[in-house]
Write a structure and sequence with these properties.
With 145 residues, the chain is an alpha+beta fold. The protein has helices at 49-71, 114-127, 129-132, and strands at 10-13, 22-26, 31-34, 76-89, 95-108, 137-144. The radius of gyration is 18 Å and the shape is globular.
Length: 145
């Protein structure tokens, strides 16, 4: 049984200048090169906050689905996700991540119930911790094969 609350730790180290990359690390030692994206006049070449935001939503969905599918004994061959994040200005003119669409393609193992798989995908969307924790309008679109 999972014992809440859970805590995750991260570190970052950067020097001055919008054109310089910096590094961020996870508690497990994963080192990630980070950069301001060209869209915000940075150099690119590293993960941006927008990348992490979009990846967090998409990978939270996949992780949650894997757990739900296993507990429901739904066997699948592959799950693929593609997403698009929209950064816009709010009513005060400040930029924010206003919308995200996530396309999910699920390939079932032969003989699996497509309706049941669809139900589990919808359950996953409602259970996705990251998507539930943000104010960005996140929409999921499913294709079951």
């Amino acid at each position: 049984m999972i014992q809440y609350p859970l805590k995750f730790k991260f570190t970052s180290h950067a020097s001055s200048g919008v054109k310089s990359l910096w590094s961020s690390n996870t508690q497990d030692g994963g080192n990630l090169a980070c950069a301001i994206p060209p869209e915000f006049e940075g150099p690119g070449g590293g993960y941006s906050p927008e990348d992490f935001f979009g990846l967090a939503v998409m990978n939270c969905f996949i992780a949650t689905f894997k757990v739900i599918a296993e507990r429901s004994k739904l066997l699948f061959l592959e799950i693929d996700a593609q997403s698009e994040l929209t950064v816009d200005r709010d009513e005060k003119g400040a930029p924010w991540m206003s919308a995200m669409s996530v396309q999910i393609k699920l390939q079932l193992e032969g003989g699996q119930d497509q309706e049941r798989a669809q139900h589990l995908l919808e359950k996953t969307a409602a259970s996705c911790l990251v998507a539930r924790s943000i104010k960005t309008d996140v929409r999921f679109y499913f294709e079951v094969q």
